[in-house]
Hints:
The protein is mainly alpha-helical. It has nine helices and no strands. The protein has one domain. The protein has helices at residues 2-28, 33-67, 75-78, 84-92, 98-110, 118-125, 134-142, 146-165, 181-202. α2 (33-67) packs parallel to α9. The mean pLDDT is 96.
Amino acid sequence: MQRAFDQFKNSIKYVKELDVLYNYLKNDLHLPDDLTDFLLRAEWIYAVSAMDKLIHELVRIGMIEAFQGRRIRTGKFLSFGVTAKTLTSSLSAAEPPPEYWFEQEVIEKHKTLSFQTPEKIAEALSLIWDEPHKWQRLAASAGTTQADLTAQLKVIISRRNQMVHEADLDLLSGIRNSIDKAGIDEVVPFIEKLSEKIFRACS
Length: 203
């Protein structure tokens, strides 16, 4: 688990390096917004991506631990289906061990999924964390309410999706949505703090 979180921290470090570059181009070279705003969007997108990757890794590692009997097996874990190919391979092959084949199944089933919205995150974490009130627990540890925490995350993910899937253009006017440094200075720390809370809760 720690290795997954270390990987997340490295990803966030990259985001912060983009922020340094933005500040240099904007404040020292005085480049116009249309030449620097793309860095703010990149920070937003990469921060969310780092959280998504962290949850993928926590779930993968946690499911392997549960498979090996080193973690409590949640109801969601026990209902996780495996293919006949995985079953026969794990039973017939001496090497690699059965957990290898199970891990390949987890990777294959999750590789096209995104764990970003509150609902998808809770669903994924149910595979490794047997807590019925996940967002309430996370919110309490962050000193806020479940409603406020999930609402803020939904806004961040919605805007991220606009950037990735709609070129961050307003659907009616066709004009690119504005973005500013103040927004990024809220989004990145929020994602960083939330991701750490999720890691601590699942470790």
